[in-house]
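INTERNAL AUDIT FORM
Audit reference: QA-55
Scope: verify that the stored structure record matches its stored sequence.
Auditor: D.O.
Record contents follow.
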Amino acid sequence: MPNAAYFELTISGQPERVVPIDELPFLIGRGRENGNHLTLNDAGISRKCIAISAAPSGLQIEDRGQLGGIFVNGRRVTEVQLLHDGDRIRPGAEEAYQLVFRSTDQQTSGKDGSASPESLHNLLDQAAGNSRSKLDRLTLLLEATSLLHAQLPLDSIFATMLDHAISVTNADRGMLLGPDGSGALQVRVARDEKHENLATDAVNPSSTVLQQAIEQQSTVINEDLRLADLNVQTAHSVVVQFLRSAVVIPLYNVLHESDATADIPAPKELLGALYLDSKRTSAFSVLDRKILDALGAQAANILENARLMQRERERQRLEQELNIAHRIQQALLPQGLRDYPHLAVTGIHHPCHEVGGDYFDVFPMADGRIAILVADVSGKGLGAALVTTILQGALSGMPLGVEPVKLIEHLNKFILDRADLGRYLTMFLGLLGPDGILEFVSAGHPSPLVLRYGKVSELYTEGSFPVGLIPEASYTASRVQLEPDDTLLLFTDGVTEAEGKGRSFFETERLMEAFARHSDCSLDRLQSGIFDAVEKFSAGTKQSDDMTLLLVRYRKTGWTAKTGLHI
């Protein structure tokens, strides 16, 4: 029996339906009790109407006694007659019923089983046509392959790829779908057979057919949706749009074989789907399927390349923005720290990323004192860096005489009122006058170290609250007297928490040792000596936090009074 032989049945006033010829002889007439496989319950149809039976070269039709006869392509059947694909059958003189015979088999022989001249001629024409078709399609495939290296906008590449797919399959329209943020497939590009764009929000691909392809993880070809399973036939998009055929090629990126074990195949990542449909029935040859598989592989490569290009562009954009942020942050830090009459100063900032959350500054006050500060915002990266800009803005009023305690209390409330920032900071702020008196406020920051006569000690040991963490936090100012050549080392915890082998930390004791070891050096040499000690301890371990050092050396300039204040 011919493969996929069936009737397209049209009844006046009713939707067309497909009736497969699944048994021979296949009988048509009024009433199933008469042994009919297809019943046409109408008084104008005889109980014995039509018989379809096997013939050496296909299927044949016979009039079983239909009142008024049966007609094939408008001619009355007077004897058993061979059926050809597309023959139109009408029972009786009325045109209320019409059947169109469909079969994928080709008639190649005459009544005696030998090849007829007419059939041979048709086969030769068809072979020549198929050769041209194959050549055209292979050409299209090669053109699609070249898209992998085309220096064109992605939308243009996707559109051209769809145009090739539509031409290969003779579809009415094609769509490229990709996953959205939730993983659901959404139409990215849609084209029609005229190679024109379709509005992506207006097209309606069959989600049922798409789901079938994704579940099977393979190409699904429905040559006639009316012969598909009931779920597909009754799918809303199929019915409303009068779809007759559809092709769905799921596009996968096969992950590297090293990601799979010897017994488990390499996993596949769904990149999207190539979807094609038509309002016409289509028959795809074996070559068609091979081309579809090849085209699907090319489409997956193009989609993966597009994704990689998009990621690379995003990476470059982010890198460019981070570079800009880095330049801005570096510009916010003091440039070329200069000495003052009563102190020498140097400082350095090493962020672990392009930007960081450490901040330091040195600037003169209206009363002749010099403000020195270091701060460390929680976290790292761009978010922490943005908070440092808030800090700098808050400190901009200090040279006009804002009290340090009031400033920190204001900053604490400001950050708490903006809980969405999700950040807090530790901070040390000191005001050093020509007389050597250092007035300072600590907000949860590690104590600066004081180098005096080759010995190192901490400036304070008591704790305090960070800024932006506790609403009820209160802050107080303390005062100490520095002696000539006393050196202060202000730092962030990225220095003491630098990791070495075995995940051990550099810690404050090693910092004090490195500080004391270079007590007789200039500030620049002292600074480089401390960093050398940290790097030697880390032994190439990647930096995990921002590191900042600020060194201040007090120099007596014509001051002789004794204050009695001491550390």
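Auditor finding: record pair retrieved intact. Residues 286-332 form the longest helix (47 residues).
Action required: none
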